[in-house]
Amino acid sequence: AEFMQHYGAEVTRFYILCTLPETADAEFNPEQLVLLNNASLSGNLGNLITRVLKFTVKNFDGRLPDLDPAHAAEYDAQLLGGDCGEIVDPAGSVREHQFRRAAEQLLANATVANVFMQRTEPWALRKTDPARAASALATLVQYLHYLARWMAPFLPSKAQELWLMLGCEGEVSKQAWPSVPKAGEWRELPEGHVLGTPEALF
Predict the structure, then answer these.
(1) Which of 5, 137, 161, 198 fits as disulfide partner to 53, beta carbons 3.0 to 4.6 Å?
(2) 102 Cβ neighbours under 8 A, 6+ residues apart
(3) Residue 108 contacts by C-beta under 8 Å, 6 or more apart in sequence?
(4) What is the biggest distance separating any 2 CA atoms in the chain, rounded to whole angstroms?
(5) Cβ contacts of 88 within 8 Å, gap of 6 or more
């Protein structure tokens, strides 16, 4: 009960999905829950969302940055082509009742974007090549639009918070489920889309 009060029911449930066997008994390990929250949720997923959205809102007037067509194919290939890690649709694992694997796939999909961000370094490009920085951040924001919907079955309230931070309307849980994004046809948010107010998610 103490951990649920501190971390919330959603994070506690996600811990169970990620760490406990699906076909055997297991013991609750509070240290593992703290590690999952700090490293996987806050450090990986939350840090990605906060860095992308706060930097974008601050430097691009609270709107989705412009994507230079000259950068689109390059960044699509880098993010979606496997160089930053494989992107997997968690729905397949959910349908097979492999919930632990599905949760791991969600976190791995967030890691892909973190790797992309570290390699493109939009904060540095902002000073040397603003157009390329804008394209990198536009790519990351579009990817968060996918990530929010992938999060919905696992972290519904956190997914809804992200959905609103992205400036999207309605309930994320009622949106069409996105498959793995395909280069050249995956960006869904319109040019100039107004973003919401970024806040720490975890």
Answers:
(1) 198
(2) 17, 90, 91, 93, 94, 153, 154
(3) 85, 86, 88
(4) 55
(5) 105, 108, 109, 180
Measured CA to CA, the distance from residue 60 to residue 65 in angstroms comes to 6
Name all contacts of 142-145 with Cβ < 8 Å and 24+ positions apart: 142/64, 142/186, 142/187, 142/188, 142/189, 143/79, 143/113, 143/116, 143/181, 144/48, 144/49, 144/52, 144/53, 144/113, 145/188, 145/189
- Among the residues of 121-155, which ranges form H helices? 122-128, 130-151
Amino acid at 67: L
Closest CA to 52 of 3, 109, 4, 118: 118
Q: In the structure, what pLDDT confidence band is assigned to residue 177 with cuts at 50, 70 and 90? A: very high
pTM for this predicted structure:
0.90
pLDDT at 34: 62
pLDDT, one tens digit per residue, over 7-58 is 677 777 787 777 766 555 556 666 665 666 556 788 899 999 999 999 999 9
CA atoms within 13 A on the CB side of 51: 19
